[in-house]
Amino acid sequence: MSNMTSRSGHAGAIRPLERGDLPQAAASISGGRSSAALAAFLEETLFDHPWADPEIPSLVYEDKGEIVGTIGASTRRMRFEGRPLRVVVSAYLWSHPRVRERGIGARLLRTLFAGPQELTITDGATDTVRRMWETLGGRTVHLNCFSFVRVFRPWRLGAERVLARRLSRFGSLVGPASTPFDVITTRIARPRLAPITPEGEIEPLTPTAMVEHLTSVTASTRLHADYDSPYLEWLFARLDEIDRHRLPWLDGSECGAVWAELVRNKGRVLGWYVCQFRPGSLCRVLQIAAADRRAPEVVQHLYSRAWKRGASAVVGRLEPRLVAPLARERGFVRYAQSGRMLVHAKDADVVGAVLSGDALLTRLDGEWWVS
C-alpha cells in the first residue's frame, strides 16, 4: 500500500492485514500470551462480519517480514440526514516497542484516515491515542468520555469491584456475603436506592424488532446506524460468544450475556436498551435508544428491570440525549481515564452532529465491545 523510510533509514511498508497475518498479529496485540482465541475473534470481527468492506481493510506495518504495527478497521453502515455513510471503527492500534520512536502508529492511523469511509470513530482511546488523533485532525467527543453509574446495591458493587478482582477464587462468595448488608442498607435508604416502577410493557428485543422500529426511534437524530437483520443477528451472537468464553472487560470484570428489551406504553414503542449483564452483578449498557422525548421512560424501565434482576448497579456511557433523563434518577458521573471517544471525518457537518449530540452513536456501534 505504501513504502516508508524513517529519518534513521529504516524501511517498512504499510499493507492490508491478511488472514494469514492473524496468528502473528494476535500474539503481538496480546503481548505474547496465548492468542488462538483472539486470532479467531479478529477473523470474525475484521473479516467475516456481514458489513465487512474489502475497500477498507485493517492495516499492518511490516518491517523485514515482521509485523511491527497494526490497526484494525471494523466497518459499520450509518445514515446521516438520510444518506448512507460508510463508517470505520478503529481498534487494536499497536506498535512494537522497538519501533515506536519511528511513529508507526501515527503512520497507520494517517493511512486509515485516507480511506474511502466518510467517518472514523473509536471509543476505547487512551490519552496517547487521543493526542495522535487530534494531531491528525480528529476530535474528542468530551461528553461521551464520561460514564454514568446508578447504584442499587452498594455493598455488592463494592465487593465486586474490590474483592472479586483481587481475590478471584472468592468471587462466587461475593453476592451471598454482601446480601445481608444490602438488605439493611435498602431498608434505611430505599428512596435513594430503589428505582420507581414505571407504566408500560416489556418484551424481548430481537434483531427483527430493532430493524422494524429503527426509523421511529431515530427520527429525531441526524446520524444513526443503518441496521439490518443479518448484521444484528451476527452482532448479538458475537456478544453472547464473549460471555460463553467468559472474556473480561478492560477492568478485569466479566462481561455477561446480552440482555435486550423493547419498551412499549399502551402498544406504542418508546425505545429499547441493550446491555451485557449477568443477573446479580453489574449491568453494563451498550445502547439506550428512545423515540423523541421518550428517553426518561426507557431509562426508568431499564433501572426498574435491572433492580428486579438483582443488579448491583447500572453503568454506561453518558450521551448528550441522556443527560436530563439520567440526572433525574439519582446517579452520578465519572470521567473515563481510558475509553475516550474520538471522531474523524472529511465532512465537518458529520463531525458536528456527533459533537452536538445529534447522533445515536453508542457502545453497541463502536470499539468498546470489540476490544
Key features of this structure:
seven-stranded mixed sheet; Aminopeptidase; 371 residues; 30% strand
Question: Can you offer a commentary on this structure?
Answer:
Among the domains are: 13-117, Aminopeptidase (3-Layer(aba) Sandwich); 146-152 and 195-336, 3-Layer(aba) Sandwich (Aminopeptidase). Mean pLDDT is 86; it is low at 4-9 and 167-173. The protein has helices spanning 22-29, 36-47, 104-113, 127-135, 154-166, 174-193, 207-217, 229-244, 295-308, 323-327, 348-355; strands at residues 2-5, 11-16, 59-63, 66-80, 83-95, 119-125, 139-140, 146-151, 201-204, 223-225, 257-265, 268-277, 282-290, 313-317, 332-335, 340-345, 359-360. By secondary structure, the protein is α+β, with helices and mostly antiparallel strands. The longest helix has 20 residues, at 174-193. The strands form two sheets. Strands 1, 2, 3, 4, 5, 6, 7, 10, 16 and 17 form a ten-stranded mixed sheet that branches. A seven-stranded mixed sheet has the order 9-11-12-13-14-8-15, with helices on both faces. Helix content is 34%, strand content 30%.
